[in-house]
Amino acid sequence: MKVSLAAMALATILCACVNPFAPKLDNSPSHSGSVLGDQHTIEGIFQNFKQAYSFQDTTLYGGLLAQNFIFTYRDYDKGVDVFWGRDDEMRTTYGLFQNVQRLDLVWNNIIDSTFDETGLKGTIVRNFNLTVTFDANDIIRIDGYASFALARTTPNDIWMITLWRDESNF
Question: Which of 8, 30, 101, 104 is least enclosed, having the fewest CB within 10 Å?
């Protein structure tokens, strides 16, 4: 009887230290289950851009933009190019994220890409489709092209967007 009572006490103590509702920490080096991309790669930049829009996450979005970032587009009504810096881009994107129910961004083919011989600067032109859902009765679909200038300080650094030229005809 003393053995079984001691065994039960030991079992109770051991079981009390395990939470069946808490998953174990995954210490594996594989990131295959992550929805985020590796910004050391060009495709990782675009994957993170898409996820930032999908999750409406300004922190993730801000991690894509260099401190000297410039956004520009053509105002066809006025016949001028409009541009703004990183701070205005973050405020504008925050406003977008706060005022929509859903954003669906699809990156299509890369139309053109050029990189310097150092591999530290490059330009990508890519086709995209963006569906902006304000509510069930107000959905806007935008198809266009975006031209991105990308840069990194060393080949081991992540890519950052320094310029985004929206070439859609919205």
Answer: 30
